[in-house]
Amino acid sequence: MVTMKQARHPKPGEMVLTEVTAALSDPIRVGLVRVLADGRERGWGELRAPVAKSTLSHHLRVLRDAGITRTRQEGTRCFVMLRREDLDVRFPGLMAAVLAAAIADDVGTQVGVGEGDSTR
After folding, report:
1. Mean pLDDT of the region 49-69
2. Which residues form the HTH arsR-type domain (predicted)?
């Protein structure tokens, strides 16, 4: 029997500004946040980025560890969503500013959502 360890998600009070901003310092991660900003939970297999699957997994882990996203596992499938409400409680206005700047500066547009297998 294979046991899968549960991902740790920091509580809003445990989120650290420097960790959040460091996680947002990469254009691929900003693109992932832009995709997830619609509030929908996405299967990892739906996410499209110009990087290897292992690199995409790394980017998703960095976002999760900083508290920016929440990952949920269902069998062999993983789903991710933006923790917008938690971030807005902890850092009011930060996500709105990041998203507005990303749109204005055209950051993260290489990341998107596609059809396909959402198992990982």
Report:
1. 97
2. 9-106
Q: Is the pLDDT of residue 67 over 80?
A: yes
The token duo for 31 is 């693109």
DSSP symbol at 116: S
Q: For residue 37, which of 48, 25, 45, 29 has the smallest C-alpha distance?
A: 29
Q: Give domain limits for the chain.
A: 18-105
Reported pTM:
0.89
State the Cα angle at 97 between 88 and 40, rounded to 5°: 60
Is residue 100 exposed (0-12), middle (13-18) or buried (19+ Cβ within 10 Å)? exposed
- CATH number, domain 18-105: 1.10.10.10
Mean local confidence (pLDDT), 73-82:
94
Give me the helices (H) in 37-93, please: 53-66, 84-90
